[in-house]
Amino acid sequence: MPHVVIEYFAPHGLERAVVLETALETAAHSDIMQREDIKVRLAPSEAILFGDGRESFIHVTLSLLAGRADAAKLKVAETLTENLRKVCPDIDAISVDIQDMNPACYKKSLR
């Protein structure tokens, strides 16, 4: 935790390492999470169909343990959207959703 899952479809390619690094650095500099706790992963979509004709997207789901202020989460969402737009100017749609995880129900096991 935190988990940053980046779903995407980019028919003309995506600089995956740049996108991963951008997400990690943005999250790490947010002051609401620690770099060593952040996990970022890409989840490519096999195909998409948008009713308005767009042909590419990035959607980020950032899952955090509950307890952060809405203003702080909004700042992360805005900054993440802006930073991804800088490195992915040709992507038609970029969105971010921040979700609270219930700390009473979140469990993990580390080796």
Overview of the structural elements:
The structure is a single chain. It contains 2 helices and 4 strands, in the order βαββαβ. With 111 residues, the chain is an alpha/beta fold. α1 links the parallel β1 (3-9) and β2. The protein has a 4-stranded mixed sheet with strand order 2-1-3-4, with helices on one face. The longest helix is centred in the C-terminal third of the chain and has 18 residues, at 70-87. α1 packs antiparallel against α2 (70-87). The chain has helices at residues 16-28, 70-87; strands at residues 3-9, 39-44, 57-65, 93-101. The chain starts with a strand and ends in a 10-residue tail after the last strand. The chain has one domain (3-101): Macrophage Migration Inhibitory Factor.
For this structure, what is the CATH class?
Answer: Alpha Beta
Structural class: alpha/beta
Beginning-to-end CA distance, first to last residue: 15 Å
Q: In the residues, how many domains can be counted? A: 1
Query: What is the count of DSSP helices, taking H or I runs of 4+ residues?
Result: 2
